[in-house]
Amino acid sequence: MENRYRAKFINSLSGFKSVNLIGTQDSDGQSNLAIFSSVVHLGASPALVAFVMRPDNGARHTLDNIIDTKHYTINQVSTEFYQAAHQSSARYEKEQSEFVQLGLSAHYIGNVKAPFVKESRLKYAVKLKEIVPISLNNTQFIIGEITHIICQESAIQADGYIDIESLSTVSVSGLDSYHETKRLSRLPYAKPDNFTV
């Protein structure tokens, strides 16, 4: 396959994915914002998440900042700013903050050394725990522990479930196709005797 065709085709195979903006800042206070569709849950206790960092292209501001400060934020993207989020994939210079370039607001709390996206309705701060190199394709698996969570309270249900659909969270398929979601239902905990064909 031709390279660009192959990239779009293979990226579409995994279906709908969450779309997040990762906020970082270097030790001099220069902020950075980048879109990722590879954020995954690794465990609840401790609360671990991870994402895949693409191969080195010579300018990986997000990774450099995470290595520098050990802190970053993960900010879910909603319908109100998905176009700005997509634009964060452009190759801005290090001294150009994507917050400024995209018209998004950097928000800081307490001792978190990375900016949140103020417009995001569900966001969390993460502390770097481990970087796992993946030699097969020269990517890196960035693993961190969640330290702070900011979520619109009305989305948190009595059992701890977060209704992300009520937050207008979007998903992405492929590299550039954004989607709203529609819940079918919430199902009970699966047991061998509670399903019939």
List the topology elements.
Elements lengths: L2 H11 L3 E2 L1 E6 L5 E6 L3 E5 L2 E7 L7 H9 L1 E6 L5 H6 L10 H5 L3 E2 L8 E2 L4 E13 L4 E13 L19 E3 L3 E3 L18
Antiparallel strand pairs: 1-11, 2-3, 2-6, 4-5, 5-10, 6-9, 7-8, 9-10, 11-12
Keywords, separated by commas or semicolons:
single chain; 197 residues; alpha+beta; Pnp Oxidase, Chain A; three-stranded antiparallel β-sheet; 16% helix; 35% strand
Describe this structure in words.
With 197 residues, this protein is an alpha+beta fold. It has one domain (17-179): Pnp Oxidase, Chain A (Roll), CATH 2.30.110.10. The chain contains four helices and twelve strands; from the N terminus they run αβββββαβααββββββ. It has helices at 3-13, 61-69, 82-87, 98-102; strands at 17-18, 20-25, 31-36, 40-44, 47-53, 71-76, 106-107, 116-117, 122-134, 139-151, 171-173, 177-179. Strand 4 and strand 5 form a beta hairpin. The mean pLDDT is 94.
What is the H/E order? HEEEEEHEHHEEEEEE
Report the average pLDDT across residues: 94
Per CATH, the superfamily is Electron Transport, Fmn-binding Protein, Chain A
Kindly state the percentage of residues in helix.
10-25%
- Order of strands side by side in the largest beta sheet? 3-2-6-9-10-5-4
> Rounded to an integer, what's the Rg over CA atoms?
18 Å
Distance between the termini: 41 Å
Strand content: 25-35%
State the total count of DSSP E strands: 12
Q: What's the number of structural domains?
A: 1
- How many strands, what sense, and barrel or not for the largest sheet? 7 strands, antiparallel
CATH topology: Pnp Oxidase, Chain A
Report the CATH C-level class.
Mainly Beta
- Enumerate the spans where pLDDT stays under 50 for 5 or more consecutive residues: none
Tally of contiguous helical segments: 4
Shape: globular
The SS-based structural class is alpha+beta
Query: What is the correct CATH architecture?
Result: Roll
